[in-house]
Amino acid sequence: MESKSDFSKGNVNGIIIRLAIPLILAQLVQVLYNVVDRIYIGHMENIGQTALTGMGIVFPIILIIGAFTNLFGTGGAPLCSIERGKGNEKRAEKIMGNTFAMLIYTSILLMLVFYIFMKPFLYLFGASNDTYSYAYGYFSIYLMGTPFFMIGTGMSGFINCQGYTKIAMAATVSGAVVNIILDPVFIYTLNMGVKGAAVATVISQIISAVLVMGFLFSKKTLLKIRKENLKIEIALLKKITGLGAAGFIMSASTGLVQITANSTLKATGGDVYVGIMTVINSIRDVVILPTSGFTQAVQPVIGFNLGARKYNRISQAIRFVTIFSVIYMIIAWALLFFFPESFIRIFNSNPELIAKGVPALHTFFFGMFMMSLQVAGQAVFVGMGYSKHAIFFSLLRKVIIVIPLTLILPYVWNLGENGVFLAEAVSNFVGGTACFTAMMISVNKLLKSPEK
Predict the structure, then answer these.
(1) pLDDT < 50: residue spans in the chain
(2) Quick count: other Cβ atoms within 10 Å of Cβ 228?
(3) How far apart are CA 296 and CA 363, in angstroms?
(4) DSSP string of 310-360?
(5) What is the pLDDT of residue 284?
(6) Alpha helices (H) along 125-233
(7) Domains identified in the chain, total number
(8) Three-state SS for 9?
(9) Residue 5 domain-assigned (yes or no)
(10) Residue 5 pLDDT
(11) Measured between alpha carbons, how far is residue 217 from residues 148, 165, 193, 226, 227 in Å?
């Protein structure tokens, strides 16, 4: 296992593939936590479209919760990889302990805030009188699982950075399989509807968290959670959040984009377009998984080789993940372009939603292959510890480009609700090109440095 955890030896492409496959499978199953909920709810008789729209209002808030998970999880894990590459196991364990403690504290705080301000938040984020009850019914129960979600998701990265990706995958898969099995039981058999979907999700999150922490407290792990490492070290926390800020901003800004889109679509097109955006976001969550898995797999490889000063291997890793991401995204875009209705029907078969959803899907995903450059560039920045670069380009694409365009385009050139979907396409071209170009320029000098 030690040799498999040494990313400075062996074929770089092979290592990335070995790490990526279980990551992709784990992420696929994890996405099914929410996507399966939407599929079941969207096909409920008579109320499916309205209930699906209500759930769509909740998911941007869940992304914000996930953003805080990333703030510590995606910040701590790459730093842990770098320290492992330097042979500093004690420092790596300190990073892991501090991350664990902050995930616990933050999850409790978020639960309190969202429970107190739930109603005004839901209406502000796009709920109508028709969809509010479904949004509230799901979210009020889902919040109970916040600590388990944040711990299970945030700490799994510390299993991956040790090379135990199959164990991390097994923990995620186990919880998700339970969710998939329990969904129809609670939703249909027990007639709980959206509340049943939330109950099933919380139970599955508890299972995943128990399995992740069970391994990290076991004798098999290379790095152990120790009581003395749970005391927060401010200087270290700044490094963790400094690097994790990129992941935080990416998730939080995605949530803010969806909130802005839902609110704008409610005003310009009504609930049907909020439902369409829910479907489109669900499709995107699944489609981008392979690219997301490979870019996450490359981060510990880059981090380890940075610590080991194996710069040529970093160059190989960047080249491989970029080529794969671009080719995959082109193929995915072609499938979505030629078979849009088939993808929409997975979630809902309402004729109005399909008729209006097909052109919206075409607009939203136009140029999605350019998103691969953004994802690849972002992953390299994070893996190398270039937190400021990663943060800037996260802000550029989502906050500086997408949100303003989402608010402006619907009211110019008679674009209406189509302007909301066009904003995403524009950001793919501008943000992807800028991020990848800057990444190559930024790391070029380092990659030409003498190796150890």
Answers:
(1) 1-3, 452
(2) 8
(3) 28
(4) -HHHHHHHHHHHHHHHHHHHHHHHHHHHH-HHHHHHTT---HHHHHHHHHH
(5) 86
(6) 132-142, 146-160, 165-184, 193-216
(7) 1
(8) coil
(9) no
(10) 56
(11) 16, 16, 37, 9, 11
**Pair of tokens at residue 146:** 């916040």
From the list 326, 325, 360, 370, the residue with the least C-alpha distance to 340 is: 360
3-class state of residue 361 by DSSP = helix
Residue 367 corresponds to which tokens in the numbers above?
A: 């140029």
DSSP state of 91: H
User: How far out from the chain centre does Cα 364 lie?
Assistant: 19
Question: What one-character DSSP code corresponds to residue 171?
Answer: H
Tokens encoding 158: 């510390």
**Structure confidence by residue, pLDDT tens digits, 180-235:** 889 889 988 888 888 898 899 899 889 989 998 888 888 777 777 887 878 888 88
Separation of alpha carbons 20 and 14, rounded Å: 10
30: containing domain:
12-447
From 76, 150, 138, 74, select the one nearest 109 (Cα to Cα).
150
CA 161, CA 56: separation in Å to the nearest integer?
33
For residue 384, the one-letter residue type is: M
Residue whose entry in the numeric block shows the structure tokens 């997301």: 292
Do 381 and 250 contact (CB within 8 A), yes or no? no
Query: What confidence score (pLDDT) does residue 437 get?
Result: 86
- The Cβ of residue 439 has, within 10 Å, a number of other Cβ atoms equal to 25
Return the amino acid letter for 358.
V
Asked, for residue 2, whether it belongs to a domain, the answer is no
Q: For residue 185, is it within any domain?
A: yes
Amino acid at 370: M
Residues 111 and 159: beta-carbon distance below 8 Å: no
Model pTM greater than 0.85?
Answer: no
Alpha helices in 1-88 (DSSP H): 12-42, 48-85
- What pLDDT score does 2 carry? 45
Residue 89 CB partners (closer than 8 Å, separation 6+): 83, 222, 223
Query: 87: burial class by Cβ within 10 Å (0-12, 13-18, 19+)?
Result: exposed
Give per-residue burial for 38-49: e unless 16+ CB within 10 Å, then b. bbbbbbbeeebb
Structural domain contains residue 452: no
